Structure formats: C-alpha cells, structure tokens
Amino acid sequence: MNNKVSSNWILMSLAISAFAIGSTEFISVGIMPLLTRTFNVSLATGGLTVSIYAMGIMFGAPILTLLTNRWNRKKLLVGIMISFVLGNLIAALAPTFWILLAGRVITALSHGIFMAIASLIAADVVAPNKRASAIAIMFTGLTVATVTGVPLGTFIGQNLGWRASFLFLVILGFIGLITNFMLVPNDLPLPRPTSVKGIWKILKQPQLLLILIITALGYGATFPVYTYLTTILNKQMQWSQAAIVIILVFYGLAVAVGNTLGGRFANSNPLSALLKMFIGLGVALILMELTMNMHFLGLVAVLVMGLFAFMNVPGLQLYIVQLAEKFTPNEISLASALNISAFNVGITFGSTLGGQAVSAGQLINTPWIGIGMILISVVLTVVLMKLGNKNIVSSEDLKLQSNCQTK
C-alpha cells in the first residue's frame, strides 16, 4: 500500500462514495408519491424501485466480486462510480417506469460491488481492534446520506420534479468518482484468488450460513415499514409533505448515531452486541405498530426505529469477515460480498412483504412483518452464540490433546 496515504484519507474517500450510493439506494422512498403519479402506477408497484434495486445488489455483489477479484482496486472503484453515474442518468431521463427500473438495476450493480470491496479495504487499513469502527466510518457515508442526501433529494423532487432528484445523484456520483481518483492509492493489496466454488465453501459452513440468514432477516426487518415511510408519515400520522422532509433529516441523524454506536459496541464482541441491537429494533417496531395513527408519538417511534435501523450493520459485516478468516481464509472477499447480498435479500424480502401488505390495504400492519423477522433473527443469533462457544471448547480440547501427545 502507498504509505503516503493515511487510513483516514482512504476511509474518507470510501465514505464520500458511500454517501453518493446511499443517497441513491433510498431516494425513491422520499419521492415515491411523485413516481407513482408520474407513471400512474400503484404504491406497491412503486415499491419495486426499492426491491428491484436490492435484488440488483443481491445478485451483483457476489457475481461481480468473482469477476473482478484480481482487478486493481483503484481502477475498479473508478469504474464502479462511472457506471453508477450512468445508471442514475438513465433513471433521470427515463420515459417509462420500466426504463427507470433498468437505470436502478445498473446503479444497484455498482452499489453491490462497491460495498463488498469497500468493507474489506476499510477493515484492512486499520488495527484489528478498530475494524468494526473503520467499517462504521465507511458506512457513515450511507448514514450521512440518510441524514442529508435522501431529505435533500426529496426536497429537490418536491420543488423541481423527481428527475431533478436523480440528476442530483448524478452530481454526487461524479464527486465520488473524483475523490476515488484523487485519494485512493494505486497499489492497494489484492484479495486472494477465488472462484465460484468458494460460494459453496462458505455456504456449507453452518456458522457462515447462519450469519448470512441473520443479516438478511435482522437488517431487513426495518424495510416493510421504511419502504413506505413517507406514506405512513403523511397518511397515517398526518404530517405534511414539508414537515416530512425535516423528519427525514432527523430520522437520518438517528440512523447516524445508531451506526456509530453500533460500530463501537461491536468492536470487542460483535455477536453479543448484535443480539442486544436486534432486541432494541424489535421494541422499536412494536412502538411503531402501537403509535401508527398517532401524530407526535408516532414521530417518536419513527426516530427510535431510525436509531436501531442501521446499528447492526458494522457488527454483521465484521463478524462474517471474522468467521471467513477462521473457516474459509481464501474466500474472505467473497464472504464479504455474500453478506452485502444478504443485506439486500433482507431489503427485497422486507419491502416485498410490505408491498403485499400495502396491496391488501394493510399499511398500518407493516410493522408486524418486521417484528416477525427480528424474532427469527434473535433466535438464530442465540443458536450462533452456542455454536461459537462449542467451537471454542473444541479448540481448547484439541490443544490439550496435542500437548498431551507431545509430552
């Protein structure tokens, strides 16, 4: 690695790009009513702008990681941001809803591969005991996007039209492209060679498979509600469109605080921290259900949900890297990519189930879907903790046996 570039600069460049990407992922949540009116589609169909995007990340992250595994990291990052800009440009100029979705897919493919490699770079450039915090810094770009990018994009859409919102994303993507070009070193280390067989090596490890399922369900539990948050705030809680923009800012601030705390909590014992975070998110979703038709108390529940929504991300991403280092050391980058896919399996699953509820006229009951997902996550996390304890005992026994044989 180029010693002239400090880890702080590298993390900053990754966070800037993550900001552009994070603004894109959730922009359609803020402009959903505008899109449905323009293209004359239902709210459930409009939700495809979230679920299809997530599916693009879900499939794109592992496939593109395999294809680009030995590519120069800086050139890959620059190429990612170029395709990101093009995808948003297509969305901005889309004459039909389906072309808009095509632009979203192109952008999503860029998103998936970016998050997979950026997480590894962030973890590699700091001391081992700061890896979760480094990943949290990189993901701060996503949370800052939730604080400012999504509300600003929503404000632009409400005042200049939704196409201007996507042009705003084009500008953000171009800034990310420039920062990658200027700040990311040319000689970042390449991951070890891997192949499609590595996917099976990862999935056949019970602990790795469990954490992927936990990632999908635990992270995705927010999205049956979050995908339709603008509509919930407006129709159920009776907040005006102007007020919603401000609420989205405070929601994003809550997400940013939660993400930072999550990184700190997960540094030493990520799995134990994750269990507590999941329980907190479950309580937040129960509050959402109880206050769905309340004006001010509903707002409080939304902000509490924001606090816990992304809190689990650094721990989930760190823990799968730790497991991969132990069980599949040649497939660490692929494990990271699969976990990025798992995040988006959760988004797809959660937003799709939420869409089904909305289609059935059950917008008010979308929190129950998330509550069910988080309950399964809690159970599986407890199972994973027990598996980890057994492995620790087993390793100690093997050492004792080895010592006895030596003696």
Distinctive features:
single chain; 407 residues; mainly alpha; 17 helices; disordered C terminus
Q: How would you summarize this macromolecular structure in one to three sentences?
A:
This protein has helices at 7-39, 43-46, 48-67, 73-93, 97-124, 131-160, 162-183, 197-203, 206-220, 223-226, 229-236, 241-266, 270-290, 296-309, 313-327, 332-359, 366-406.
What does this structure look like?
- Its main location: membrane.
- The chain crosses the membrane at residues 9-35, 41-64, 76-100, 106-127, 134-156, 162-183, 208-229, 241-261, 273-290, 296-320, 332-354, 366-385.
- It is a single chain.
- This protein is mainly α and 407 residues long.
- 83% of the residues lie in helices and 0% in strands.
- The protein is built from 17 helices and no strands.
- It has helices spanning 7-39, 43-46, 48-67, 73-93, 97-124, 131-160, 162-183, 197-203, 206-220, 223-226, 229-236, 241-266, 270-290, 296-309, 313-327, 332-359, 366-406.
**Termini distance?**
44 Å
Radius of gyration: 21 Å
What best-fitting shape do the alpha-carbon axes yield? globular
Helix content: over 70%
What kind of sheet is the major sheet?
A: none
Tell me the series of helices and strands, N- to C-terminal.
HHHHHHHHHHHHHHHHH
Unreliable residue runs: 392-407
